[in-house]
Design a protein that fits this description.
The chain has 146 residues and is mainly beta. The chain has one domain. 9% of the residues lie in helices and 53% in strands. The chain has one helix and nine strands. A hairpin with a 4-residue loop joins strand 7 and strand 8. The longest helix is centred in the first third of the chain and has 13 residues.
Length: 146
């Protein structure tokens, strides 16, 4: 399959659903909360591909959390584009979005944002990475209470 055909396939798959949202606010206490979405990623992505996102509105207890994002290759369980940071969050409702995008030719990047009701937004970004094969990958975001 040519790179152009692969890029067109990715564009079609990713464009079919940009975001998945949960309508109700899901409460989370200082345990673990997550978001995930499975998407088909091509080995040779193009910057013209639309990003694929998953989002969730969530109530969080005041706490320090370990915030993580990665993409998992479904067939092998290998992890790609892992990023993690510690973050203190005040109690409240947050809008959480995690995205796989193509910042430069042939590279993917995982990113997440957490937006509070007062307009403050925090970001978590992985380094750019390549995938070893064209197949399904699952973007995973986690907030783990410390």
């Amino acid at each position: 399959m040519s790179k152009r055909t692969t890029a067109a396939r990715i564009a079609g798959v990713l464009a079919s659903g940009i975001a998945v949202s949960f309508l109700a606010v899901a409460p989370a206490h200082a345990g673990t909360a997550s978001v995930s979405r499975t998407v088909w990623l091509g080995k040779f992505p193009s910057v013209y591909n639309d990003p694929a996102s998953v989002s969730r509105d969530i109530y969080l207890a005041a706490n320090t959390y370990t915030w993580q994002v990665s993409a998992t290759r479904d067939s092998t369980g290998s992890i790609h584009g892992y990023a993690s940071r510690s973050i203190y969050l005040a109690a409240g409702t947050y809008h959480w979005v995690c995205t796989i995008s193509v910042p430069v030719e042939y590279d993917y990047k995982n990113s997440c944002s957490l937006s509070s009701g007062n307009g403050a937004t925090a970001y978590l970004n992985s380094v750019n990475y390549e995938v070893p094969a064209s197949e399904n990958y699952t973007i995973n975001g986690y907030l783990i209470g410390q």
